[in-house]
Amino acid sequence: MAYSYLGVLYGRNPLRACATALLYSFSTLLDVFVHLNMYLSLIAWQPALNTTMYRMQHSSAFWWIILFNLLPCLFLVFLPQHKLMSGLNYWLCAGTVFFILNLFMWAVFPMATWVIVCLSLFQLHRHNELLLQQRY
After folding, report:
1. pLDDT by residue (tens digit) across 7-41?
2. Closest by alpha carbon to 20, among 109, 123, 89?
3. Model-level pTM?
4. Do residues 56 and 106 make contact, with C-beta atoms less than 8 angstroms apart?
5. pLDDT tens digits for 60-97?
């Protein structure tokens, strides 16, 4: 982890590293919380029967969706810095393919992570290059 993006960032600014990890895992944590709420009744709320969230929770592929959404955060933790951008770009392309193959219906809710990565990719690339230059 010493040469991963979050590893290097944690060495320089631990608060920013934690905030970045939280940003990239937010929708996954929200999915898991809503799923646990279904069994534990943590809050008095359940998704309506005709929503995408309800269909996703009761889908047999729910944990595959969670794993797919968690991949960008895992990339930040485990991939070396020089391979991070290509890994995230491949993940974005795979997300686009899943979105198109599912005919814009089933994959709408899991795409929250995809949007977060898309919107922050340029900033992440710039900051990753800065960290790489400072390291050498």
Report:
1. 998 989 999 999 999 989 988 888 888 888 888 87
2. 123
3. 0.81
4. yes
5. 878 888 888 899 999 999 999 989 999 999 988 888 88
Angstrom distances, CA of residue 97 to CA of 84, 104, 111 = 20, 11, 11
Cα–Cα distance between 132 and 58 in angstroms, integer?
43
Residue with tokens 């929770």: 57
CA distance 95 to 68: 9
Residue 135's identity, in one-letter code, is: R
The answer to whether the beta carbons of residues 40 and 47 sit under 8 Å apart is: no
Give the Å distances, CA to CA, from 28 to 81, 118, 133.
23, 16, 32
Tell me the one-letter amino acid at 38: M
